[in-house]
Each structure stands twice: as C-alpha cells, then as structure tokens.
Amino acid sequence: MVSKQVIPVIGLSLTVYGLEEYLALAKGTPVSVMFALHGRLQNQSKMEPMVEALCKLNQHRKHDENYILVVTFDCPNHGTRLVHKLANFAWAEGKYQNPNHALDMWAMVNSTASTVSELIDVLEHYLFGGLERSIVKVWGVLGFSMGGHAAFLAAANDPRITVAIPIVGISDFLSLMQSRLEESNLPASTYLPLPFQNLIAEKMSHLDEKLKSTHLLMLNGEKDDLVKSKYNAPLVQSLRKIHVGKEGYDWKFYLIPGVGHEWCPQMIESSVEWTYQWMVKNTEASKL
Known SUPFAM superfamilies for this protein (predicted)? Predict the structure, then answer.
C-alpha cells in the first residue's frame, strides 16, 4: 500500500501519496505531480481508489522514467473545510433547497482550480526542501464531477499544467447550470442572474484556445443525466480543428457506453494509461 502523508500548506491539509518512497530514492530523481480533485458532496478520501491505481505505476517504473506523486485536498466547504452544508446542494436535491446553487457551485469550482495553481507555486519547497532548481517534470490535474469541472479550468488557466483528466466533468459550466434551471422550472432572473452569467461566460471564454496544447483526456458517461456529455461537444468539435496534437493520442474524448454519473473501471484504467504516457514515460514537460 502506498504511503500517505498529511502536510499543511496554505491553510490546507494536503494528503501526499508516495512521498515516503520517493524520498528514499536518489536525490533529484525526476518526478511528476498529479492533483486528484474530488466531487461535490464528497471529500478527498473518495479519490483513494484512483490514487492507489496511479501510484502503482511507481512499482514498475524504469530508471529513466518519472516517479509519480499524487496530491489530494478537500475542496471548499467539503470535508474538513465544511462550513455550510446547504451550500453544497442543488436548487432542489432531496430534502435540500439551495437558492444559491449556481453561485456556490461556481465559487467552489473556481476556487479549487485557483488553489491548484497556488499550490504549484510553493509545493516543491514543502515536499523536497530547498532546491537549486525545480525537479518536477510534469504537473497534472485529474478530477471527478465538480473536481472535473475544476480540472478543465485549472489546466486552461495555468500553462504549467500540461496534463488534465476531467472525469464526468464539464467544460461549459454555464450551459450546465442553465439546463438544471430549466429542469427545475425556476426563473433565471432569481437563480442565474444575468451579471453572473456574463461573469461565467467571460471566465470560461476561449477555453479551447487555452487547452489546444494540453494532453487532455475527457471521460464522460454515456448515460450521465446529471452532467450530460453533450455540453463538452462544442469543446471537442473546436479541438478537432485547433489542437496542435493528434486526436486519440495527444488528446482524447472518451464517451463510456452504459455508464452514468459514477465511477467505473474504464475511468481508472484510462486515467492510469494517460498518466503513464504523459507524466511517467514522458521525461520532458509535456506541453505540446
């Protein structure tokens, strides 16, 4: 079983997987770091099956390949950071009714994406101590559901992130919220006000341009009714025209048959393969 260490960084309790084993290797061994972001109504521990699968790559690592570390943290208002339980629910979800669902959800997605970049700024010092140069070869981000939404945004906004794996995530947050509003039969003026819509549109603009040189693996469930894959279609269609790499190799959209808004073995298997190709096997920063 892979080691895990809890490290306080910028007010967060990070869990770092594989660090103990890495520090036992020769100093300066090349390393890659993957952030694994959990979904709404979950916490960082829910990412452990994925984390364990990713860290198994280290067991078969060749001497010239990168070691992989995986980092998790609780997203805003989740897990150890929970302040207001209602804010994590939708407009109408079970016994809960959250009138601020769209605003709360966006704030959590945006904050999570920003946190990844803030951690990249300082994390090497916390993990490896004083360094004369950076030893992290590749930074990556993987996320499930809400974490998947954040993975899109983090990779788009930070050029240091060269690998992204959004799982049942969406690249068009505004369309997702608009569809949920229609399904709930609620007025946009109250629950999705125009100034907020304009803000989201601006923040998410040119996502295709920002991701056109990223090794992006999008995984969606064919039967997912909560985060419908069709809202990734505009990005996929655009990337087919402008991505600098080859579809199916440098970037990929995988719609998994018969799967809803849930984990499945194919998601873990595909993520492990992608991580090996672009974070372990590839020994240079993998931005195209």
Answer: alpha/beta-Hydrolases (SSF53474)
